[in-house]
Amino acid sequence: MSNMSNDTNKMKLAIIGVGLIGGSLGLCLKDKLGDDIYITGLCRTQKSMDRAVALGAVDYASADIEKVVGGADIVFLSPPVLQIVPMVEKILPYLKKGCILTDAGSTKGYIWQHLQKILPKDIYYIAGHPMTGREKSGVDAAMKDLFVGKAYVIVEDTGAPPEAHKKLMSVLKYTGANFTTLDIRKHDRCASVISHVPHVTAAALVTLLNRSGDDRESCIKLIGGGFRDTTRIASSNADMWADICMTNGEAITNDLRQLQDLLGEVIVAIEHHDRQTVHDYFAASKQLRDKLLLDASKKFDPN
Fold this sequence. Notes:
With about 300 residues, the protein is an alpha/beta fold. It contains twelve helices and nine strands. Helix 4 (about 80-90) packs parallel to helix 5 (about 110-120). It is elongated.
């Protein structure tokens, strides 16, 4: 581990959870800002600390909360969603006045519902959600350009003053992400449709293969690009996705029921040999997806 800095003029950023997202942020900011920013990281194991420093994601890593967050201007929270609130409770005694808390949590309503009860008036929370990731996890999977061109949601209805937003964005702008703003409830509903339900569905397709009985081994021999592409995100971190389902349950279950209904309509059409309805189902989805991808390429990449 490198020694802690005594330079009081530097921007100080603490990353809680130096994994794929937190590590990528650290790599990006050190690449762009170099010695103008001092980054500390909270890691659970000595191996993680050593890797985070060796890879250049942080200047200093420790399991000591006070050493990591003490004096920080910004704290970036990147553990699984259910660990964010307990972590804030642990770090609060060591935060300086005016410190900005932001996060990478995939659900926002649950976090804000709890944080607004415990945050003092001089500690500001600005909810964030970088819409990016990889199947791999951990700091070894981190990439300095992970955020480039990807959507990054900033939630503005958590009471932080404009100067806090300006300060946070003066750092996050270096990620190269395409920033957009949403209110908390809309964020959670939209995240369910474009991210959470697709993950549940990808896992379901893998589970369907595994439950194909005597045909399982023969099916596996036929796996090609279509199955790999459709189920790629099923390789994501199970702890993270279990937490997401527990903290955005209303939106996810509503959307899954709608998906159930939609699949039911297709089942009926196929059973009735209604080729036109089945054809229209595929044609409409192709047309919409092609248009969405064209529009997204002009604005931002949503995943």
